[in-house]
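re: that chain from earlier
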Amino acid sequence: MSRKITSTVRPSPVACEEQNKVRGRATGRVSKSDWLNKALELLVSDGIDAVRIVDIARLLKVSKSGFYWHFKDRAELLEAMKHYWVDEFSRNFIEDASTDNGPLRKRLASLVGAIRKKQSGKLDLAFTSWAQTDPGVQEIVDRVRDMRIAFIKSLLSSAGLSGEELDSRARLFVAYFSWSEVMFEPKNGELAGEDLNRILDIIVGEDAE
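^ sequence. v structure.
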């Protein structure tokens, strides 16, 4: 199945590093992605107030002046963080799952694997926390949630689900797989005490292939 995903925000400014180099100037060893990734790490570990240019530079062991080769200011960095979360942790997951024409259970299990491989739950939690103090981020969080639910509904509908049953099961999938990895202890690539097949039985139905 191929499905066009409606954009919730403008395309990520960090989608292609080559396109993000600053007006022909050399960018040095610390790339735009390096600054962005370290900012996201700080967001996850310490919250949005900890995402400061001077602290990112210290962690990268470079001068903070290097930041301005890639971003105009902190506000532009924060926008890049928002776009990256939407693109890498929602839109790309959905697009990849949309190209898989296998059985429903296999597609859902593959989607769960992709979510957990990227440790999506940690960023989901961080953005949800950020949203408590920023209405603009709350709007993005709401859009991402609705985009994820709509996509899971499109998958579950192939199992014959509809109406309130379809909506409830899609919400359950999104809620559980957005938060389970930050609530339960990882163990040997899975979560301690979790039977993924049984979880999918509850969400999809035992008879779904």
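Confidence is low (pLDDT under 50) at residues 1-28.
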